[in-house]
Amino acid sequence: MASQTPPPGGLNDEVHDHDNEERWLLTYADMMTLLVAFFIMMYSISVLNLAKFKEIALSIKSGFMGEMEGKKGEAVINEEKNMSVEPIVMNKQQGETGGTRMVTESNGPSPNDAIFAGLKQQLIDLKISKKLQGIIDIKEKEGNIYIVIITDRIFFKQGDAVLTEDARQILTDIGGMLKPIKNEISVEGYTSTTPPAESVFKNNWELSAARAVSVISFFQNTIMLEPERLSLTGYGQWRPMFGAKDDDAKNDRVLIAVMKKTFKGGK
Fold first, then answer.
1. May I ask the CATH architecture of the domain 111-262?
2. Diameter of the chain by CA atoms?
């Protein structure tokens, strides 16, 4: 009996055509799976956990390069850099949505650090060349430079706020170093526990503030420092540096703080 060839368009062709028409579902399902995984990952890093991020980075690098010898469990991110997250603010032309972005800041020396290093060395050289040991002390804390000047009968007479000639000369030298930089400067006045007897000042509050004003005025009017950079505070006798009774006179002092923050101008 002769075999019969199924006519075109028979049952088999209909089955194959039906299979071909549904193959796009496989590609579509794969794409949707990848999109879901992508958005889950984006959501998970929208609020960055730096510790987990380092662990993930280490796992990824180990997966591609193999486990680094002696580096198991350590972060692959360079520890000499700080990593922070800051918001992205978009204007109306860009849209109203916000987000986060990763900012890498180097801990390397900035131009301001170099300026401060030079200023500190100049002050040390001044202290040595003018033989001001015991009168001027130079400290650095939280990026600021503090020039502590013991003023007892050197900068001011007892109970007075008028700068002596020696004080004017020292402040001229210091002011010359401060003029080229743009950092903010704060002057703080302090006194000993001795009240200002036979003086125009009623108490040590007024005396300490007046002494800070004298230094500020000298910087502004003689050295010609920008007044916007200057500020002052008077603490009276209430923040002594020396506790012993014999050293109480050393609490008569002026502190000149050169702040790490620079004056930008305007409000």
1. 2-Layer Sandwich (3.30)
2. 141
